[in-house]
Amino acid sequence: MRTLISTAFISLDGVVEAPGGEPGYRNSGWTFKDIEFVPEAFEIKGREQQEATAMLLGRTSYEAFSPVWPDMEEFAHYRTMPKYVVSTTLTDQDLVANWGRTTVLRSLDEVAALKETEGGPIIVHGSATLNHGLSDAGLIDRYHLLVYPLLLGAGKRLFSTTDKDTQKLKLVEHEVYSNGLQKQVLDVVR
Questions:
Q1: Paired residues of 6 in beta bridges
Q2: In this prediction, what percent of the chain has a pLDDT beyond 70?
Q3: pLDDT tens digit sequence for 41-73
Q4: Which long-range contacts (CB under 8 A, 24 or more apart) does 164-167 make?
Q5: Percent of the chain residues topping a pLDDT of 90
Q6: Cβ–Cβ contacts within 10 Å for residue 69, how many?
Q7: How far apart are CA 27 and CA 21, in angstroms?
Q8: Alpha-carbon distance 18 to 28, whole Å?
Q9: CA 133 – CA 176 distance, rounded (Å)
Q10: Beta bridge partners of residue 182, listed in sequence order
Q11: Where is 25: in which H helix or E strand?
Q12: How do strand 83-86 and strand 54-58 relate by DSSP bridges?
């Protein structure tokens, strides 16, 4: 079974919305405003590209990333990696042509079936709504979090608010950086 890893920039109060400057959110671009850049804090981002063998995205994140990431040198490895987009509305005609093979999945059942295939880890970037569904369905195996020392208040959150049994996580890697960022790698305990 393949490992499904959710990776996120997240505020201390759980917000993941518009970290890179996406329009429409009051605090858009919060990952680089008034936060000193410390290169070593982002080592995990390079490692994710080397370790992942596929990328999974929700429709909104696909539509935000696909016009930009294919031409960015720092995301070069993602160009050739198979990508999967979970959407009930996206069609093959909506997919960009310069970002490698992309498959539209229509349900979380199709994600569960993808996890059963041969291959290495699948990485989920952004995709707040998709993360809620994946978590509620018990499909996430690991979280890679870069926690920012910020309270953003309103905004899309990484974790679902569904009333469910406690989900235990095991901290397997962590580090605190000089700018206050915290790396937390957590395995979901089954």
A1: 124, 143
A2: 100
A3: 999 999 999 999 999 999 999 999 999 999 999
A4: 164/136, 167/135
A5: 96
A6: 19
A7: 8
A8: 5
A9: 30
A10: 147, 176
A11: none
A12: parallel
127: left (phi over 0), alpha (psi -120 to 50) or beta: left
For residue range 123-171, list pLDDT tens digits in order.
999 999 999 999 999 999 999 999 999 999 999 999 999 999 999 999 9
The DSSP letter of residue 40 is G
Distance, C-alpha 142 to centroid of its chain:
11
**Angle at alpha carbon of residue 8, lines to 5 and 10, rounded to 5°:** 140
Query: How far, in Å, are 5, 43, 69, 127, 148 from residue 153 at the CA level?
Result: 25, 28, 28, 19, 13
Q: How far is CA 22 from CA 4, 91, 158, in A?
A: 25, 23, 16
Q: How confident is the model at residue 34 (pLDDT cuts 50, 70, 90)?
A: confident
Q: Do residues 85 and 105 lie in contact, with contact meaning Cβ atoms separated by under 8 Å?
A: yes
105-123 tens-digit pLDDT: 999 999 999 999 999 999 9
State CA 144 to chain mean position distance: 8
SS3 50: helix
Q: How far is CA 71 from the centre of its chain?
A: 19
